[in-house]
UniProtKB/TrEMBL annotation:
This is Monovalent cation/H(+) antiporter subunit G. Keywords: Membrane, Transmembrane, Transmembrane helix. Residues 112-149 are annotated as: Disordered. The chain crosses the membrane at residues 12-33, 70-92. It comes from Streptomyces albidoflavus.
Length: 149
């Protein structure tokens, strides 16, 4: 029994997509080994791998051509695309917080807000406890509370 022309075309396209996806995954793996720093490696670990696994799984779906297999492969693609960027973000965040990122690569808008003692905005100056007109912290200066004895 000879396969139909559509089945033969789907097999050919599926084989090409599997090969192309594997090649992209290979390039991402080479980048993971060759790139010099954490952020570049994180990029090489997620971007090409997500595209590569997507192409491989679409190629496999074209080859298998059943509903259950396509549904299973769609779930794999969904969870792979959902978890890959999250894991990459956590690796980059960990590298940033432990000082594993070169300072010349950084421009951090939130650095002042995340430091231990950030500068207050000029519209809200810090209270000076030595000022005479500063509001008392614990009530009136005479030590009595209002309405009590």
């Amino acid at each position: 029994m000879n396969p139909t022309p559509w089945a033969q075309a789907a097999d050919t396209v599926g084989a090409f997509l599997v090969f192309l996806g594997a090649a992209i995954c290979l390039l991402g793996s080479i980048g993971l080994v060759k790139l010099p720093e954490v952020l570049s490696r994180s990029h090489a670990a997620t971007k090409p791998q997500a595209l590569g696994i997507l192409l491989v799984l679409v190629g496999v779906a074209l080859r298998l051509r059943t509903g259950i297999d396509a549904g299973t492969l769609a779930l794999i693609i969904f969870f792979q695309l959902l978890t890959g960027p999250v894991a990459s973000h956590l690796v980059a965040r960990s590298a940033y917080r432990t000082g594993g990122v070169h300072a010349d690569l950084l421009f951090d808008d939130l650095d002042e807000q995340l430091s231990e003692e950030p500068d207050m905005p000029r519209s809200h100056p810090r209270p000076d406890p030595d000022r005479e007109d500063a509001a008392p912290k614990d009530g009136p200066e005479d030590g009595h509370t209002p309405g009590g004895g």
